[in-house]
Amino acid sequence: MDVTWKEASSPEEREAVFRFRYKEYFAAHPGLPGVDSSRRRVALPHDIRSRHIMALGPGGRLLAAGTITPASEPGITPEWKDIFHFARIAPLLAETIIISRVIVAAAARRSALFVQMSLHLAKAAMQSGFRCSAHYCAPRMISLYERMGYRCYGSGSEIGPSFRVPMLLSIDAADDLRRAGSPIAALLPEGGADGARLQRLFALCPELAETPLCLLDPLAFRRRITALCPALEGAAPSRLRPLRRAGVFRLPGGMALARPGQDEGGFALLSGALDAGGLKIAPGAFFRSGGGLITACENSILASIPSYETR
After folding, report:
1. Residue spans of beta strands (DSSP E) within the chain
2. Phi and psi dihedrals of 295, rounded to 5?
3. Which is more confident, 257 or 160?
4. Whole-angstrom distance, CA of residue 230 vs CA of residue 284
5. Other CB atoms closer than 10 Å to residue 178's CB: what's the count?
6. What CATH number does residue 158 fall under?
7. Of 211, 229, 252, which closes a domain?
8. CA–CA gap between residue 243 and residue 272 (Å, rounded)
9. What pLDDT does 278 receive?
10. Which residues face 238 on adjacent strands?
11. pLDDT grade, residue 168 (50/70/90)?
12. Structural domain tally of the chain?
C-alpha cells in the first residue's frame, strides 16, 4: 500500500483527524470521552496542543491517524489522569508521552497500517526525548500491545460504556523489547537503555516487570495461569493453550482475562471476587462490565475455551 506520512500542521488538518476518528471508530462508541455526535468529531481539550500523525493514501485520502501528547501537558483532563494513574507514576510524567486514538480506516484494517502507525508514533516520541509511552486499550487488544513491548500497570477502569486498561512501554527495557520481537526494538539507539532508570520504574510499578502470558514458554505459562486461577489446575494442556493469546489485567476486586477479538465487556475472573448486584462472581466465571454495572454470565472459563480456538 502506497502511504505518505505527515504530521497535521494546520487547523484544517487537525479537524480532518478529529472527523476521521469519529467516522472510523467513535460513531459506534458515542459514550467515550471527547465524542461530539452532533458535529461528528472527536477531540479533547489537550488535542489542540498534541501532535497528530496521519497516513495518507492516493489522492491524500486519510487512512490512519494517531496522537501523541506529553503526560506533563497541563490541559490533560482529570479523567485521563485517573485512567493513567498519574499519582502513581508522578516521577515519570516529564519523560512520558501518551499515545492515543490510533485509528485505521475500515478499508485498511487488514493491512500493516496499525503496526506502521504505532512505529511512527513511537519514533516521534523517542526523537522528542521521551523514554516512556503510555496507552490505554480494550482488554481484547492487550496481547497485541504486549507483543509490541507494552505492559499493563494499575487497574483497568470504565470509560463511558467501555472498559479500558492502561499500558506502559519503556525504551529502557530494551532487552525485553528484543526478546518479545517488538518492531519498536529496531528503533532503539545502541547503548541507550538506562538500567538504573528501569529499576526505578519497576519500583513504582512492579507489575511492569512481569512477563506476559503470550511470551512465556509452555511450562511457565501453565504455572502462571494456574497460580492466577486454581480452578484451571486440572485442565489438559491442550485446553489451556489458547489462553496464551489472552490478556490478563487488574480490577479493583481481582485479576481478569480477556481473549483477543472478544467483544468488549465480557471477561473471565481469574482471582479475587466481584459483586454483581449481591451475586458473588467466583474465579473461573465469566462476567460483563459496563455502565457501572457488573453482570454475571452463565458460562465458565473452561466451558468457553472452544470459542478461543476459532479466533
Report:
1. 4-7, 35-36, 41-42, 51-56, 62-70, 96-104, 132-137, 151-152, 157-159, 162-170, 247-251, 254-258, 266-272, 274-276, 279-281, 285-290, 293-300
2. -120, 130
3. 257
4. 8
5. 14
6. 3.40.630.30
7. 211
8. 19
9. 65
10. none
11. very high
12. 2
pLDDT digits (tens, 9 = 90+) for 239-273: 788 888 888 898 877 888 886 655 555 677 888 87
Task: Note whether 147 and 179 are within 8 A (CB).
Answer: no
Which cell goes with 117?
Answer: 502507525
**Quick check: 147 and 169 in contact, CB under 8 A?**
no
Residue 311 has pLDDT above 50, yes or no: no
Tell whether the torsion through CA atoms of 150, 153, 158 and 160 is positive or negative.
negative
Q: How far is CA 113 from CA 8, 63, 103, 106, in A?
A: 18, 8, 10, 11
Single residue among 179, 211, 243 that ends a domain in this structure: 211
**Is residue 110 domain-shared with residue 159, that is, in the same domain?**
yes
- List C-alpha distances in Å: 183 to 7, 86, 150, 187, 188: 21, 27, 12, 8, 10
- Same domain? For 219 and 173 the reply is no
**Total count of residues recorded for the chain:** 311
Cβ proximity of 163 and 289 under 8 Å: yes
Residues 6+ apart with CB under 8 A from 212: 142, 143, 146, 151, 152, 247, 248
Give the residue numbers spanning the domain of 76: 4-211
Q: Dump pLDDT digits (tens) for 133-158.
A: 999 988 888 988 999 999 999 998 87
Nearest Cα neighbor of 257 from 149, 118, 158, 163 is: 163
Q: For 16-44, what is each residue's pLDDT tens digit?
A: 999 999 999 999 888 888 999 999 999 99
* pLDDT band (50, 70, 90) for residue 284: confident
Provide mean pLDDT across the span 281-286. 76
Q: Is the pLDDT of residue 51 over 70?
A: yes
Which long-range CB contacts under 8 A does 70-73 form with residues at least 24 apart? 70/96, 70/97, 70/98, 70/130, 71/96, 71/97, 71/98, 71/134, 72/96, 73/46, 73/49
